[in-house]
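the two lines:
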Amino acid sequence: MPYRAPVDEFRFLYAHVVDLAALAGTERFAEATPETVEAILTEAGRLCEEVLAPTRRAGDTDPARLENGVTRTSEGFDAAYGAIAEGGWVAISADPEHGGMGLPMALTTAVNDMVSSANLALQLNPMLTQGQIDALEAHASDELKALYLPKLISGEWTGTMNLTEPQAGSDVGALRTKAEPNGDGTYAITGQKIYITWGDHDLTPNICHLVLARLPDAAPGTKGISLFMVPKYLPTEDGTPGPFNNVRTVSLEEKMGIHGSPTAVLDYDRSTGWLVGPENGGMKAMFTMMNNARLGVGAQGIGVAEGAFQHALAYAMDRRQGASKVENATGSIVDHADVRRMLTTMKADIFAARAIALMCAVALDRARSGGGEDWAARAAFLTPIAKTFGTETGMAVADMGIQVHGGMGYVEETGAAQFLRDVRVTAIYEGTNGIQAMDLVARKMADGGEAAFAMLDEIESFAETARERMPDLAAPVWEAAETLRETVEWLVAQDDLNARFAGSVPFLMGFARVLGGHAHLMAAMADPEGPRARLARFYITRLLPQHAGHLAHARAGAEDLYAVSPDDLAA
Amino acid sequence: MPYRAPVDEFRFLYAHVVDLAALAGTERFAEATPETVEAILTEAGRLCEEVLAPTRRAGDTDPARLENGVTRTSEGFDAAYGAIAEGGWVAISADPEHGGMGLPMALTTAVNDMVSSANLALQLNPMLTQGQIDALEAHASDELKALYLPKLISGEWTGTMNLTEPQAGSDVGALRTKAEPNGDGTYAITGQKIYITWGDHDLTPNICHLVLARLPDAAPGTKGISLFMVPKYLPTEDGTPGPFNNVRTVSLEEKMGIHGSPTAVLDYDRSTGWLVGPENGGMKAMFTMMNNARLGVGAQGIGVAEGAFQHALAYAMDRRQGASKVENATGSIVDHADVRRMLTTMKADIFAARAIALMCAVALDRARSGGGEDWAARAAFLTPIAKTFGTETGMAVADMGIQVHGGMGYVEETGAAQFLRDVRVTAIYEGTNGIQAMDLVARKMADGGEAAFAMLDEIESFAETARERMPDLAAPVWEAAETLRETVEWLVAQDDLNARFAGSVPFLMGFARVLGGHAHLMAAMADPEGPRARLARFYITRLLPQHAGHLAHARAGAEDLYAVSPDDLAA
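prediction for all of em together
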């Protein structure tokens, strides 16, 4: 069941939901002309359909493996990665000064989405490199930029992110890796890092690790963390990889999915590193890297959802079983109401999640092209929502994809299970979805909810405009936004952060449901007699009502939750 | 993280939610004295904790395999199965006439739940045998009963269910396996069956297959299907296994989980079979087998949920990371609001699902012990709910269990992922959850909703009684029941079955949410100052509100759903 890139859906979203054209009017993104956008979408789509998607199964059945200290990658990954790098797809948003194309994140997000559908395990590799490029562009010295950025942007070398240590997962402040000054401006890095995605591989001649570590006498916790560039091989004068830098791959994890992505335990033993950003300023640099990566992970979830959806739809259209009396019957199981319900839910939620991710990306682009603080605040606010709703949609859609297949879905040969096993990690890495939700209700609402209210004003205002032509769709969206507004008001009034945290994931999901309603309403208004309006009606009538349950949970506070004690749980 | 059998929870449910004592007052279940119940719970609990649970991991890492035509089972399964059989645990509800204990399904359901926590892959084996025993007790000739029942009840032989064929999944009527009379009262069975759980293994000297097949000139569809007993080895005069009966294992499926359970493709080539029940009466016999198996599968979901919950709780209590300012802080991640939310959700939903399964089991027992048609109707009504909500809870809880573990949850070594991979099949087999929901809104509401309304009367009446002492818990349950009543009224008024089917899964989930609220309210009333009331408050305040979203979907009808055409989906 070959993958077909959803290029039309991106075109539609750019035109009717997120106003990509406005970006081309800015100096920064003047290159993003309609012609360029079209070329990017169709060329990336073709790459994914023809070159990358055929390698997805091997990324499951032929896992990356460590052989005598050398990490070997899955069958076909070498050529597929080569096509990504040679096509210039690693970092189309990167700075043109170092070889990037300077295109909007709105385009990168579409590319990440499509590449993730085609092969999630492989897509992680350029996505990590993208994060590293962002961090270097924002924080590295000119020397480091000049040396590393061209290699990373061209895909000649790849980048990784080294945060986690065995004793410190989500609690980055507890890390122990040491960085001792060598006296020549470099540092000796010593320690062990775990869960390093594409931490080692045989696709490129060098791998660039950004490593969080502590200087001698650094403050405890997150305030005493610095960031270092530690290449696997030390670059020589002419920029080619030279001596081994004592970055040893201890082992690869055996994971539930993304078997084609080597997840390494790396051991640094007085490996040479260069400081990125100021001493003890590692957390800030890391957040640059992670924030963009979070949107990227949201796109991964959506991409896998798309892949799983297409896979399930093709199966269902092909499977003839029983008969269902419906208009325009296909004779396949798509005629059965519950199969149709699952497939339509998948399609409608993918659209909602994709719209949210693009709203976030465009806000980032607006902020970067001189749009001001409001756009930056919106981007910051939407990032955890895009990450969490994108990945939750990925999991839910992949799960429904298995269910559409019936017994065949549980047999690995079909390939349906791979989507779920692969996408499951996206709810965990780059900050678990629970951490995203905490970020949303605390840091991202530390402004008293301003960014949230601005978004709600826009949703309600659009619903009011839409009310005349589509009252039955506009009214529920407006009402849901009002319930959400009341919930935001309740949340920002809570000084006890635990009262916000206790229902933070349901709050985030409720917010996403309403944003999805908004996006579907915009789509329906743009295509009032067409398939977009029909899908919007399905979403608004059947899926949007879930917001009420989520928001009731969000407003329940912490007291009743903590009343159930650990002893009660263990009873 | 050793499994601890939730014996206290069963005691509590029997005493305060489902009134097990009333059963002991009937002639049929006079043996189910408090002493017997206590002995069953504690002995089964001990078996699961000490003997079965230690074999669970091997059932994942050491899959069943086919070697030169012989199916080899996972390390330790032989001894574990032996302990189940020798302890008399295969069929405690079976007829005492053939060696059973004649105990209520309410007890079997608790045992199935615990054994599934300990080792789902292995539990499938006795569960399938239970289904076969039910079918034989209800439909087989006295000769067949006398020969097979003692062997099956003792666990000396095991039983399987052969429905599915390559071209016919959920559509059983499309099957093609032939049964030709041999002239001596036996039949020659020829055809291929797929997805045969424990279809072959090396644990017992014989395996008894119940096979659906067509007699020559049988009517097409489900009306022309008959049921046959086809043993792997033909029993000799003295009842020991004799000549091979041409039941060949073609292959074993490579599945997402339950690797320890061999799922076979079986080839029958003029294998000798004996008719069970009348000619062309196979569907009825199969429904006997499947109906009870459906409740059993619900218990499997709950059991895996319990295992995943205990695993996650133990991890969370042990994991020290970050600090959260809460009363009675443990210093572990259990103090974090979102971790606490996940664990409490898991615990509360397990309780709800378990209560529903036991309500169904007790209704079955009441019907069998002379309680009359109303109990039979209730059992029939609750069966698809118990199956679907039990298995959906299994999946949701196992998924949250991974999330509680963070990155460790995605690494197979931790064991958290196994619960999700294992339990995923339970939503598919014995009739997918979509088929359960269709059964609920069509066959099980063909009585005009009588069984549903009787259940709702009981829920509302209890909520009215509880209103005085616990108004803030009783009122939301009563109101949810009213919304559900309106939805049932709407559904039974729909003559177009597709209007019912279009929201049938959400309807089922909404019904389960309300039943769960009822069970939690009963628990709170029985333990008003204790942990049961605190958990009930969490459920009723935070999880029960989900019913509104489900029921809005359930009432949306089919028109808007079918408006989204297959072409729209493929667009």
